[in-house]
Amino acid sequence: MLYADVIIPLGVESFFTYSVPEEYEHSVTVGALVVVSFVRNKRYTGVVYALHSNPPEGFEVKPIERVIEEGFALSESHLKFLLWLSEYYMTPPGEVTRAALPVAMRLESYTSLSLSGGWEERLSDVPELSPEEREIVKVFQERGEICMAEVEKLLKRKDVYVAVRALLEKEIIGIKESVDDLFKPKFERWVGWKREFTDGELENVLDSLKRAKAQYKMLCDWIYYSHEHQVESLSKVEFMQKIGNSASVLKALCDRGVLEVVVREVSRLEVGDEEKQEIHALSEVQERVLGEIRKDYREKDCVLLQGVTSSGKTEVYIHLIDDMLKQGKQVLYLLPEIALTVQIVKRLRRVFGDRVGVYHSGMTDNARAEMWRKQNGDQPYPVVLGVRSSIFLPYRQLGLVIIDEEHESSYKQKEPAPRYNGRDAAIMLGKMNGAKILLGSATPSFESYQNALSGKYGFVQLATRYGAVMMPELLFVDVKEYRRKKMMKGCFTPVLYEEMKRVLESGMQVILFQNRRGYSTYLQCDHCGAILKCKHCDVSMTYYRYRNTLNCHYCGSLRAVPGVCQECGQGHYVNRTPGTERIEEEVKQYFPEARIARMDLDVMNNKAKFRALIDDFEAGNLDVLIGTQMVSKGLDFERVKLVGVMDADSLIGFPDFRAEERAYDMLMQVSGRSGRKGERGKVVIQVADIQNRVYQLVKKENYHGFYSLLSREREMFNYPPFARLIQIELRHTEELALRNAANELARLLRERLERRVCGPAEPDVSRIRKMFRIQILIKAEQGLSLSKLKAFLKQKCGELVKAPVGKGVRIYFDVDPL
To answer: Which pairs with CB-CB distance under 8 Å and at least 24 residues apart come from 274-279?
Structure first.
């Protein structure tokens, strides 16, 4: 008999063996998606890891129940990449598989309920039903088989569990575990000609319709439209909008055999409608850089391109993409944010048309599943543009991986597992597929820059802006001094206010950057100084004025603003540290004529809103754009002549060795949005600690000097890029139990790792969703075997969980934390 080792999409370390029924012996291959029964007969989509003929001992083997899709399987290289992610990031292979497969391709068991066979006869043998039980039985009589969540929804109550449980015990209702295929093709109705008509036949048809005026008009309009636009059919929705909005008239024409309505399967994937353009010729500097990259690729797989903002890196990317497409290869183009895909996809589709596919978490589940199937089929997109999750797509002939803004922390997945870094994983994906890798950034990450300086990566620099445009003028403004003199206008210094006034009067645009959402980052009592915190998390709640509520950005809980302080009962809460909502309010107050928009997660919750806002700003329909870090990354607006950084100090004040690196990157990137074309732009940066060394280094615009200064400290204290980090996080509902477990784990680890173990220590937010958190940091110097270190960490954590002191403790690993 044939057996299959299957990866179950759960947080379990092992593979599980199932027998392969005879009817599936030819369709079950390594990488195939199969439905299997797991604990308590719940069914899951598993991935076949290996096939063999060795029967397992000690338990009865369950059979594979069915194959999801004949001929559909993960390739050997794809499966190898997913298993590498599992091993490197210390995550069970099931959790990696769960992240890789779109929801609509993960068939999972759900608990559905229905009336049992012979339930009516059984009623006579049981005591009288309660009113709640009778109500539930009535629901099942009307609806048939439904799931538990739907019972609660129909009865509009959440206290039905006890009654349902009683009915289960009385065998009036029963549980059925079923598998529901969530992915369904999308169908649309299309209207077109029933058959081909000659001109003479059409004249005869029109003559016969002279008394049916509505039909005559609809047919005339359709003849004109179809000839004008050279189309044979339209979707029914579009037909009704453009030809005639009468279903009865359309039906009459169909009954006459002139038109017909057919059902077609249509794609959910977006289609580009951008006007096609030729590839732009490169400038002399860009041509030199492209030549250097091609030369480096002869010896190295990975090249770092450091190019100042607005230097034309994207045009260099486009020429490299064209090289690969001519060789019949695929290209993966990674970006850190969904917002950036809107502008970049336009540029790529103007050159490459519908050969560009887009993939990100903003797509519907079914659209993502369709993209997955297309990339695994015979006609995949040659170019895929997406965010970090794009690394999970299948690739057949991957030739180039471009990672733009490679320094961005957005590439790191923090929750849930796998906690992978999209940049590092994409580099490994490229190497496994024999592809070339290009990292692009104005402010490279320290890790990439060190690899470039050491010769591990090729290194190319693009030091001037395209078209000889000057870098923006940087003005650092002392907020503390203006506050002392009482010259502030709300959150605006006189310098920023006057610069905004000048730019807006000239008809140009302004971007204001504040890396805080809401109206106020926190509320504080004016009597005792207490800060209002979330009941479930150890973090302050953000105040939103437009809905007059407090919101926790960690657990999502909402609450009303208390009338008086809950600590002292005397004071009242006042706003501290303004967010984007308050900045927007003040801009409207001081510049009432300005057209204003806000870009943050509170208002930009889908791609359509991103696209509409970016199109409006690009077209000059908006004057001021206020946003969080979304506005700092890679956006290209030629009319922006001023960027205002409202509170630069908030970027630096974190107890984290990367805080200064992040602040420098953010300030340089957001500054780069100003003056990208035409006259020189300005950047006004409002600070309280004007002597801070980060600001002095930003003024010099010398990245290498900044790196040299900070890297000496990193090397001295054994931090990246001179060491690797592994963070172990322990969580528990009880604080004392958690501290005892963390101290015990630290003791076990120090027996061998000694000074490499840092902590235990509480993170900035020590409680999330009622779970207390403590972290232990492991520093691994260069030359230490990471695989042996990880095995040791897993062993000791396993010992802790089995011991009494570790009861109830949850342990999470984060390799290369950010």
So the answer is: 274/346, 274/349, 274/350, 275/350, 276/350, 276/351, 276/353, 277/350, 277/351, 278/351, 279/318, 279/319, 279/322, 279/351
Q: What's the count of helices (H) and strands (E) in the chain, helices before strands?
A: 26, 34
Question: Is there a contact between 36 and 43 (Cβ–Cβ < 8 Å)?
Answer: yes
CA distances from 666 to 62, 513, 646, 648 (A): 54, 10, 13, 9
Average pLDDT of the segment spanning 582-595: 92
pLDDT digits over 151-195, tens only?
Answer: 777 777 656 766 777 787 777 887 766 555 556 677 888 999 999
User: Which two structure tokens, joined as six digits, stand for 285?
Assistant: 């500097």
Enter the tokens of residue 115: 């009336």
Residue 807 Ramachandran class (φ > 0 left, ψ -120 to 50 alpha, else beta):
beta
Cα–Cα distance for residue pair 20/3, rounded to 1 Å:
6
The mean pLDDT value for 727-749 works out to: 95
* Strands across the sheet containing 186-193: 233-235, 186-193, 259-266
695-702 — which CB contacts under 8 Å span 24+ positions?
A: 695/476, 695/648, 697/664, 698/474, 698/664, 698/667, 698/668, 698/671, 699/474, 699/476, 701/471, 701/474, 701/668
Q: Count CB neighbours of 548 within 10 A.
A: 10
Nearest to 65 by CA among 83, 44, 82: 44
Question: If you ran DSSP here, which 8-state letter would residue 751 be given?
Answer: H
Exposure string for 348-358, b = 16+ CB within 10 A, e = fewer: bbbbbeebbbb
Tell me the C-alpha to C-alpha distance, in Å, between residue 394 and each of 7, 268, 325, 752: 18, 18, 17, 41
Peptide bond into 578 cis (omega under 30): no
55 has pLDDT over 90: no
**Strands, E assignment, 739-782:** 757-761, 767-768, 771-781
**Which residue do the tokens 């057996």 mark?**
3
Kindly list the distances between the CA atom of residue 583 and the CA atoms of 37, 168, 256, 490, in Å, as whole numbers in the listed order: 54, 57, 63, 9
Cα(643)–Cα(52) distance, integer angstroms: 63
Mapping DSSP to helix (H, G, I), strand (E, B) and coil, where does residue 253 land?
helix
Give the pLDDT band of residue 793 (cuts 50, 70, 90): very high
Query: Which is nearest to 714 in space by CA: 763, 656, 667?
Result: 656
CB-neighbour burial class of residue 769 (10 A; exposed 0-12, middle 13-18, buried 19+): middle
Tell me if 484 sits within 8 A of 688, measured CB to CB: no
CA nearest to 94, candidates 36, 178, 24, 40: 36
Three-state DSSP class for residue 161: helix
Beta bridge partners of 192: 233, 260
Q: Do the strands 596-599 and 542-544 form a parallel or antiparallel pair, or are they unpaired? A: unpaired
Tell me the whole-structure pTM to 2 decimals: 0.82
Cβ proximity of 371 and 270 under 8 Å: no
Is residue 623 packed enough to be buried (19+ CB in 10 Å), middle (13-18) or exposed (0-12)?
Answer: buried
DSSP per-residue letters across 111-132: EEEEEPTTHHHHHTTSPPPPHH
Q: Is the dihedral of CA 244, 248, 249, 252 positive or negative?
A: positive
List of residues 6+ apart from 514 with CB closer than 8 A = 578, 579, 580, 583, 626, 627, 628, 646, 647
Max Cα–Cα distance, the chain, nearest Å? 97
Q: Strand 640-645 and strand 509-513: pairing?
A: parallel
Reference 267, options 334, 185, 196; nearest CA is 185
Q: How far apart are CA 510 and CA 492, in angstroms?
A: 14
Q: Is the pLDDT assigned to residue 803 strictly greater than 60?
A: yes
pLDDT-derived band at 274, boundaries 50, 70, 90: low
